[in-house]
Amino acid sequence: MSSSQGDDPRRRIPRTDAVLTDPRLAEAAARLGTPLVKQAVLDAQSLARQGGLDPAQVPEAAVAALPSAATTLRRILNATGVVLHTNIGRAPLSAATVEALAAAAGYTDLEYSVDTGQRARRGRGTMASLRAAVPAAGDVHVVNNGAAALVLATTALAAGQQVLVSRGEMVEIGDGFRLPDLVASTGARLREVGTTNRTTLADYENALGPDVGCVLKVHPSNFRIEGFTSGASVAELATLNGGAVPVVVDIGSGLLSPDPLLPEEPDAATVLGQGADVVTASGDKLLGGPQAGLLLGDAELIERLRRHPLARALRVDKLTLAALEATLAGPAPPITQYLHADPDRLRARCERLSEAVGGTVVPSDGVVGGGGAPGLRLAGWAVALPEPYAVPLRRQDRPLVCRVERDRTLVDLRCVPESEDDTVALMIRSVTDAPSVEPG
Ligand SMILES: *Cc1c(COP(=O)(O)O)cnc(C)c1O
Which end is more exposed in the chain, N or C (fewer Cβ atoms within 10 Å of the end residue's Cβ)? Predict the structure, then answer.
């Protein structure tokens, strides 16, 4: 017994604290924190204990298994051609915005004036930027996301009362997010008017009464009804009861002013000009910023929303305020470039990529995605590879997520920064060179 014990590799597994003295692991512990590094060591020891690793290799294996950051969120390359996708974090932020985030990460003058040494208004710079971007708004407020903006508006204006909504706007906006459920959760009662395809001003007029807190108009951002349809315009709704009923318009995507590329997307300036009292929108869709909910409109109503007790529960942190301000005041966000990408330029990039890695250059339409501009096709190109490429590309250290369509993997460069084209080529080459995939 005793002689064979000396041969048992499990007895040669180094102790955890001994492994942790490895300079590479000590350095990683300073950067990532001890628990993550220790876990990598424990995993390697466990593998060695099961005979899957030479005990002498435990430090090496732990180093190889170290995470690159203290978060499990990974940077991915978006080769889907979908500009805004909720599953992959909607809008990517500009370099200026990332810098603003870093600057705000520590102590910052969020609610403090360094001039007076006194408390100052939270997020004042961000609100000033938003007001400057939409001069038609009497005042503005920012909450956690578009849904929160809608909740705050309907709670403050209609809790215990009715909210009039066209039946054609009783929509599900994203995965399980149903507008009627959301508004009902605020204690307001939704009252449907009109029919699924047609609603007139008279339908709203007939429903008016002392119990109506506000009228809500929702942009059906992720579908289109075509044919025999009509709805009351914002301008018409603004006349209800002599203008005495607040009109809340959820435009969804966060366009602040019209974009000729997206003629069917409502924008805040236009909708306010038509007489909306409060406009709600998301920060991370067509605005191209961080997750946030924008509220713009009549100064008195916005003040009411800001002072509502619920506002405290929906308020945004310093990181959101910093990122939103940099999005508004800084250079155009990446999504602007992706939406307006020149097809010829995309084609040239695809041809270069195809020369390097094979595959075929094919026409490929991009889409706005994220529940915006349904039906709009953005003309572009992609490199078509055999279908089996999709999974290994997705499983790279930095995943390359492509679109799989009709048995092909489409690498669409629309939402890939041009500076990453060579990285994409290397990734595809590494899959081609791996024994498991047959290049087409
Ligand atoms: C996306 C969207 C919302 C929800 O906004 P979030 O920022 O995702 O909470 C609400 N209404 C409309 C019309 C939308 O398009």
Answer: N
